[in-house]
Amino acid sequence: MATLSKPMVYRLRRLPSYIDNDFAASQLLSHAVHLPSAEIKICSLATVAASSWSASTKVATVMFHNLPQLIQDAPRKTEWKISVHGLPDSLILDSHFFGMTPLYDIMPPHEHQYNCIAISGLASHPFGSWQPKGEEKTFMWLRDALPREHPTVRAWIYGYDTSLTDKTSFQSIPDLATALIDHMKANDFASPTAPKMIIIAHSLGGIVLKQAITRLAICGERELHALDLIRGTVFFGVPNLGMEQSHLHALVENQPNQAIVDDLAVNSKYLLKLNEQFMGLLFNQKMKRTETGAIVRSETHAILVSPESATSNLINDDEAPISTFPINEDHSNMVKFVDDDGVCKIILDKIGEIMVYKAPLPSITRAQSWTSNSSTSDTPAPTQDARPQRYGYTPLRLHLPPPIDFQQRQKPRLNLAPVDQIVSSLDVPELHRRFEDIEARSKHTFEWIYENDELEFSSWLRSGKGIYWISGKPGSGKSTLMKFIFDDPRTRDLLKHWRDENDPIIAGFFFHHRGSVLQKSLEGLIRSILAQLLRQRPGLANLLTPLIESSVGKKFPMELDEFRALFKSHTWTQQHLGHALRLMLRQKIADLDMCFFFDALDEYDGSPEVIRDFLADLLEESKEGQTTIKICFSSRPWESFTQKFQSGPGFPIHDYTTSDIKQYCYQTINKDSTVAEMLKDLVPDIIETAQGVFLWARLALSDLFDAAVSSEGKDMTALRQRLRKLPRDLHKYYEDIVKRCPKALKEKAYALLEIVTRSFEILPIHQVLLVLVCSYFPTYDNCYQAVNTDKIKGFNLYTARRLINSACGGLLEITESKRQFRIQLMHQTVREFVLSPKFKSLILGDLAKYQHENGHSFFFKFMFVFRRMPSNNVFKASKYHDDVPKYTDEDVTKHCKGAELTTGKSQIDFLESVPSSWLLARTKTEKPGTSNGNHDSRPLSSMPHHDLVFIFAVQNGLHLCIIDLVQRYYQASEEKDRLIYNFIRAINGSQLGSDDLRTSLDILQASDFRLQGMSKQLFIEHQECFCSAEVTVSVPDAPDFNLVDLREDMLELWIGLLTQEENPISTIRTLVDACGVMTHVCSPQLVLWLLEHGMNPSEPDMDGRTLVDYLVFFAAFTGYHAHQTAVCTQLIESSVMTLQQGGLPHQASRKVWKRVRARLAASKTPILCIDPETRGDAQPSSLVQVSDATMMSYLDRAYDSLDMASELQWVPPIAAARTGRRLMVKLKRLLKIRSKR
């Protein structure tokens, strides 16, 4: 046996799932390689491809004291297969570590909150680059130190080949980024229930990651979801601005991979553009980034990456210590830590900061996640005993006993969970969208599936069992056929013969790869099936009782309100869903027959083996109970499905569409007599090659038409050869089409495909061509002049068809309906192709690195220019004038914001070229502000152009544009003052959500704008913008007051302004309008925020009233009941919270309270009741529920406590540090980087 001269770590894959400890793994490997187990050290053991429906496998990292013989026999190899008797698949031992490798499992699994992915650098080993230098290799900080410090984080390493000595590699940085995305998706990092991600990158790995993030932003729903899950990054010596290359060029000179080294040159245009784009996406995605730089300690070492490059020039920033720090090692060793290393502890601390990082600033509510059905939060809500104390006073706690329920009404109690609530929690409307979108069959087509006895489909429905597989390639009509089968009444009629005594349950799911995450996931399938089963057999809900009890933490019976409150927070994880479906399949209550129809299993967003095994497991699970199931599914004929289902009943659909394709070919050929005779002889070859795929035949016929009219059309041999060379796979065919696009038309082809793909509707032909013209130019004037020429008269069907066919090779098609010609994608698979990460590189080649616009950007420019088109006489003279669409402001906002979000690029350069008159027409301000101090009361028409651009940017949520505007124009003090009032004007009348407004406010704060005093002034001068309701209350012998409720979409904005005040509590207690009337804001969310920040609930305002006084005066001197106005409800909710915190009256006397109490006791109609049952509301109150009796109990205690309260001391807290500091640092860094473009 050869003893290792240098310790080396290997990776062992495909270990069976039952190997659950190091000893068992070493025993299995010992038997496989004929080596004593004492010679083997298992360093880690982790699960891969975990699924509730398929057998997981394990992966281990291994070290050998003596090398196994198979390695000695092939020392130059990096991967070895090991056959083990009794195992269905060979073990794989490798030293390259390519792809994703988990280093350990999180136990128990529900505590798994984060994935931490480490990406190695240029010419470094995926595993070894993170190990300590020297001979000691038993420690690896990602595997050993990270789980000790952060036990909810699971570490992964990602390996890829970046060896500079490989003379055959053509990989570019975009290629490496695409591969990274593919590996992330293959390992379920983008699934609906995937944990959040933190990514660590070293050297080139950081550039690959940045390129991957920019690619994710322009792709489909799944990729965007993966981008949302990335919460932060840690960069080690990443050459953001380039790296020294002299020694690298010697290695790659004249090799294909020289392009990678060239792109990493110092001040490379590619790197500078990528860095700017990445920083924009970093801001929009609310990520946190940490940069580390290496300090070279020896003059013999070359400085590969300068500190300036490693930190994106932030090393000299005043705030740099927060997000950057140096490591006293060379470029290679800066990521190699020994156990208990001080620098390693810093890195782990930075990872912890990412885990707790929140952006934007703290808020009360957050928008619901698009992948979840219940509101969730990253951290639990603060409890009463753990509230942050920041301003004002420490909350007084009187420890009041719970209020007495005087009504003691009998509330309904549940012994089982209501079926309708279970179904509503499972069902998601989008799950049915794919079925509805599938085009219905043409008349009389597909009838053969019921009539052809050879297919045995009808007999399978009547008496068959198991699985029936309809296979077929993309474009062969599988989905249309499945929809027809699922809807046709003959299916149910035939199933009734299955077992005569039972009415069968029929359920289905149609996967949709271009849809949302749920539409293409196993989770979405199980959700849909469970909901359909419960609708058809509500009694099955009883089986789920133990599962629901376990989930909500309480057993039945329980009150209805209690169950609703507990079940509201219930989240259906994939494990819960799998358990629920198993319970139904294993049931032994009654005989049940179920027939499932699943379409497009190849569009499942995961490993095909998982969904394949899921079908087989469904049949096995049902054998344990009284449920009998059979399944009909469709998919592409992938190897995974073929191995499992080929021997069972089913058929390939493309074997039965030959006649349709043949008819189409002859009809098309006969339309052109000049080529008919030549191409007729090729029809049999086309049919044979198409193999039933209608789309392929259509594309091939188009190619052959082009060849037939060219010089090669004279030679039938050349035509046959061209037919043979066409790719058989559709996606490969698409790639071949864009590669064959003439070089002069590649940019037009990119623009056309982007325009049609990013459009929200099918477009008329002239509009696509107008957008295309605008895509060529960077400014408004250029675009306007381009469309304002006589060339517009030349827009006709012939020239359009010629351009589209030449540039796009059939991927786009022109359709006609009622003499309206429109351009659309040839097939939905083309949209999938255009949105794939590699599309831009395929069509543009090296230019892809410098093209930062897409379809949203092109539409953005077109819609601006188009506003003046009706006055264009040339355009009016064209025959398309009557077909001009009318775009709304919402359409413009969608595209201009979409351009920012998907490209990471500001739109400032184009906006600055837009005429002021256009911006004035788009500005949605309701009125100019009143003159007040420095307030700019000039009309909009006399404002500087950049002020109008700023207002437009705020109103449309263009955050990157706001950053650039602030950096360019608003640095002087007088400019800053004017900007604040422009901000007020912008939000006055706009319909933006609170997130956009708060983000804009954060940008101003990060730019050192003085915001103190703005909250009060903004509210008083623009109260109509903030308030949704108002009631004026007149009190005898006391000043009147206004009760107002904040608009929900403005709440976070105002809270954001309040956080900038030295004393926000004092600010909100001194709101007086222009007439001198005190305004009391009774928003419950705002009162909760104030209480959490230390407001004294018994402190009077400038009119001498406490929060309790407002409630008593309102009840005494108005005729309102709580259910009559929104303000009443909000006042009562906020008052209950105040009373619970010990709030006392100050101005409302006992006499007034007695009057109110008598009114409450005598009224037959509830006055202060906000119980939803009494009010008849469909939804319960958001914060509290209270009856008149409960309010009387609270207020009685408050008045009884007046004497006692005078003896209590109120202790003011120590002022807390201002929140959001880290967000401000990030924004300042982004401002600085964008100013250096």
> Low-confidence parts, pLDDT < 50 over ≥5 residues?
294-301, 359-409, 869-882, 926-935, 1171-1184, 1205-1224
Shape: globular
Number of helices: 57
Report the oligomer. Answer: single chain
Q: C-alpha Rg, in Å?
A: 34 Å
Strand order of the largest sheet: 6-8-7-9-10-11-12
Distance between the termini: 60 Å
How many beta-strand runs?
25
Keywords: Repeat
Region (Disordered): 368-389
Protein name: Nephrocystin 3-like N-terminal domain-containing protein
Organism: Neoarthrinium moseri
Topology readout:
Blueprint: E1 9-16, H1 22-33, E2 40-48, E3 57-64, H2 69-73, E4 79-82, E5 91-94, E6 99-102, E7 114-119, H3 141-149, E8 153-159, H4 173-186, E9 196-202, H5 204-216, H6 221-229, E10 230-236, H7 246-252, H8 258-263, H9 269-284, E11 288-294, H10 307-310, H11 320-323, E12 324-327, H12 342-356, E13 413-414, H13 419-426, H14 433-437, H15 448-451, H16 457-463, E14 466-471, H17 478-487, H18 489-495, E15 505-510, H19 522-536, H20 545-552, E16 558-559, H21 560-568, H22 574-585, E17 592-599, H23 608-622, E18 627-635, H24 639-645, E19 650-652, H25 658-669, H26 673-680, H27 683-690, H28 694-709, H29 716-725, H30 730-740, H31 746-758, E20 763-764, H32 765-775, H33 780-787, H34 797-808, E21 812-817, E22 820-825, H35 828-834, H36 839-844, H37 855-866, H38 873-877, H39 889-903, H40 908-912, H41 916-922, H42 945-955, H43 959-969, H44 973-987, H45 994-1006, H46 1014-1021, H47 1023-1026, E23 1027-1033, E24 1041-1046, H48 1048-1058, H49 1064-1068, E25 1078-1081, H50 1084-1092, H51 1107-1117, H52 1126-1140, H53 1150-1162, H54 1172-1175, H55 1188-1200, ...
Parallel strand pairs: 7-8, 7-9, 9-10, 10-11, 11-12, 14-18, 14-19, 15-17, 17-18, 24-25
Antiparallel strand pairs: 1-3, 1-5, 2-3, 4-5, 6-8, 13-16, 20-22, 21-22, 23-24
